[in-house]
User: What shape does this take?
Amino acid sequence: MSGILRLSHAEVRVPDLELALAYYTEVVGLIETTRDGDRAFLKGWDEHQHHSLILKSAPTYGLESLGFKVHEASDLDDLAAKIEQAGIETTRHAAGDLGPGSGDTVRFRAPSGHTVDLVHGMDQVGNAMPLLNPPIGPDNLTGMAPPRLDHIFLMAEDVDGVTDFFRDVLGFRLTEQIMSDDGYQLATFLERCHSTHDIAFLTGPDGGFHHVAFWVDDWNELRMGADKCAYHGVTVDAGPTRHGATRGCGLYFFDPAGNRNELYTGGYWFDPDDEPTTWTEAEMGRAIFYYQGQLNPAFMTVHS
Amino acid sequence: MSGILRLSHAEVRVPDLELALAYYTEVVGLIETTRDGDRAFLKGWDEHQHHSLILKSAPTYGLESLGFKVHEASDLDDLAAKIEQAGIETTRHAAGDLGPGSGDTVRFRAPSGHTVDLVHGMDQVGNAMPLLNPPIGPDNLTGMAPPRLDHIFLMAEDVDGVTDFFRDVLGFRLTEQIMSDDGYQLATFLERCHSTHDIAFLTGPDGGFHHVAFWVDDWNELRMGADKCAYHGVTVDAGPTRHGATRGCGLYFFDPAGNRNELYTGGYWFDPDDEPTTWTEAEMGRAIFYYQGQLNPAFMTVHS
Amino acid sequence: MSGILRLSHAEVRVPDLELALAYYTEVVGLIETTRDGDRAFLKGWDEHQHHSLILKSAPTYGLESLGFKVHEASDLDDLAAKIEQAGIETTRHAAGDLGPGSGDTVRFRAPSGHTVDLVHGMDQVGNAMPLLNPPIGPDNLTGMAPPRLDHIFLMAEDVDGVTDFFRDVLGFRLTEQIMSDDGYQLATFLERCHSTHDIAFLTGPDGGFHHVAFWVDDWNELRMGADKCAYHGVTVDAGPTRHGATRGCGLYFFDPAGNRNELYTGGYWFDPDDEPTTWTEAEMGRAIFYYQGQLNPAFMTVHS
Amino acid sequence: MSGILRLSHAEVRVPDLELALAYYTEVVGLIETTRDGDRAFLKGWDEHQHHSLILKSAPTYGLESLGFKVHEASDLDDLAAKIEQAGIETTRHAAGDLGPGSGDTVRFRAPSGHTVDLVHGMDQVGNAMPLLNPPIGPDNLTGMAPPRLDHIFLMAEDVDGVTDFFRDVLGFRLTEQIMSDDGYQLATFLERCHSTHDIAFLTGPDGGFHHVAFWVDDWNELRMGADKCAYHGVTVDAGPTRHGATRGCGLYFFDPAGNRNELYTGGYWFDPDDEPTTWTEAEMGRAIFYYQGQLNPAFMTVHS
Assistant: This one.
């Protein structure tokens, strides 16, 4: 095995770290692993690694960086070489250098302007369950309690360009794409973990952040998540609904800083030799919101 | 990427091929791809490859062979070399040689006595949905209609031995194990696709076949599957229930020949650096049937 | 027992009877009982009575009439007397007079301008299942396949007035109400069958028809219903979502004529001595769409 | 409206009241309303009345009494007269006389030996939610958290006899019955609230108590209930499974004293003019456990 395994984590900017922490631990129901100055580290309850979400105190909302986990230590050198060959500078950071729990890291700036980390050896902290005769889960979970991070959705001015980079240089596979009538990619869905997407791009300003999605096990959890939103006065942006693209079901809502979150479930297994699915511009509404069949303009706006 | 990607297919013996076909297409709801003499080829509706289940006319029930899909053509040579190094003979078969749709294949006999194929390049036949602006699924599905194969569960006299072979030679990762009080493995769960198991072994006669499992998306589908069983007079063996080991939920039932099937959902994502979970012999009941907490003796009997 | 038992049926106008029939039988999945000239009679698969929905050929969409089932034959006389005492004329129709399957009927015009039937003794036609050792349901259901009618939602200029009439004269109980800042009722929910509502009224033009709702058993069925809509190109108006008022979950969509339908589930049991719940005008958005918290203006428009 | 409205409450014997309370509040998730000497009063979170379950300290497990709620105060006199006419003595108890919250009560001994209360005017204590702009539920529920009591299942030596009494004297309707090959009733299901059963009888010793069932909203809640059982080491007796009779789905488990509980969902609406369903003795297994199709002998044993 070699190369990128899956999406590892996202680092998100929040102006009020305490408020964001209260939201992410009590409403979303992530587990806080540690605090370190102006950053807090969180994970889904069933993740074993140190963190899948970092909250960073910053003047405004947005995405600071995202990280992918690689299979083996040697993948870092191989991928760094390919990225450099593609004319993009990389920096190397030893375990711990980028903060608590952080692994060996290759950092670079994607053509879409996003800071991307490739990571090996992040600290493993376990899922709070014994390795001997465990129950099927903790009994004291709070909020929506997603077991783990699922995918990230970004904006890029040149979706074709960044998609080529992710496919050719990083080895991602294209599962679905929405094509403009002029023949360029309006949105692309890319995976390494055989799901429908570890990462997706939508046409918009470079560096833009559309949402980060947490996995839940079924459609019922989306309703319970929406109940939690309503109970806590959290604005539901869209859903529970279904996507034509990926066939997954999702619920969108905002953290107190304005970063969009999704609870996501469903989708399908994607083999390396499966063909990507294409959506025409005319069917973009159905690709995004399969039931309503039309886009909510607010939903298409970059949020950070 | 290299090595084994996932479980590809199972070949199951049935004395009455017509009856078995009626059951697998109408009750289970698999799609028949083709017939070839005394064999019929089927797949889950969302599988793109030619088949994930082969029914073979034979005097009695049981497992004829199982197959794993590899990432790349070169994996076949690499794995064949490792298997030969382990003192096990392999044979090589060109695409089409082992039947309709079959890919390049390395065949060998596992230490547990099972015939195992490693396959690259099986025919892709698609999932009956367009690649342009598709709906989220066909509207005319029959029976339980699982989208795809999930895992296979076999018997072996020496579970420790075959588990070592699958880990050391084939590169599988151990996710869970049930240990006897004497310190040997009563059952092991092994994966390549980051789920809880592509294959599992239970102590029993070599060559034994416990069940083949098809994936469904949620707990609701298990109830609907059980409704289908009852409607068609198919014997439900156990469930809908939950397993302590893998945390997955399942429904067990028999095909007309006596081969055990499972509808399975749930489980969790397993990273290569996650630690396996261990169950003690005293907790084996809960590991298998989490709710009842005790084993159904019939369930533990090898069926073929 | 005496008085009104529950909502019995609705008669809906459709310009193209064939198209409407195709929609109600294939997409919604109702069972056609009979045709009679310009009318078609349908029922949910688990209803035993002759019809719960009548489609009537008419120049435009809208509600022709609605009917309630009473417990006993003598209830008809008692209720007719009360209605006449309230200054409203009634007419009496023998079984069969109002069409195939129709029972003894008292017909009158409610203060909101709607034609209302009180019915006893509609033909019982069974639910297509044997009364001896039945399965849990038919195996060949089509479309959304709701087992039965649930409630009806109407418009009235004077919601206070029609609500008083339904409570005082017909014996309905108020379960929930949305109050304007000026102290009048914007919407009311009324029941006889101990659910959250057999009928509801929303401020709007007299005689207006907001929607008719069919019961399904759970939230999962709403997603499957929405999948059916999308597959068949049926416009989803709202949902799957949840209501604050009644706590029920619903999916709204339109028949080809423009009549709004709902698939509904959830709600709660209401005892005769339970207190009604009140929503303020400021919270009306949450009362109707609990998750989004704001009204879709199109949703509030009378549709027929 | 007149007569019995629905099952109101059950009074269950427990040797260790503290242990039973811990179980019913933390595992089942009922709400404790009050304590009164050797009795504790509980209710489902969404019930408005003072109690639906009374735990009574007693040397062994079993049923002390059960109660039905009537529509109107005058129903008590009417029903008492009918019961006396049937040759059964009744006693009358003013509100409060039978304990905290108790309403006006007619008490008698059913032909099956069970103590039955008919109650009007039990204290209403609300469901802990505001009557103005409420959320869809409390956010701090514990355990399985059923919203309300559903039905009770008793044993009787002469099921035909007690069924006749419930139908003829108390006005219950028969929804389903299991008939012996000799033509007597092995089990009967009887309702007043238009569900499949408020009460059911199974052949067994007079005074026997099979189980008391709490309502949950869907099949998913049964899995979550079973997870709670397993987590807390509560013995699951059967399920999650489905019944052929009533079509409902259930999960059976025991309180620490040995009283059987059920979480129940599903079933169907029953009109007064619907015909009862009959099961033959040969199909009794499927009537009780629709999926396995055979009775668990332990399940058929009276437990108290």
In short: The longest strand of chain C covers residues 4-14.
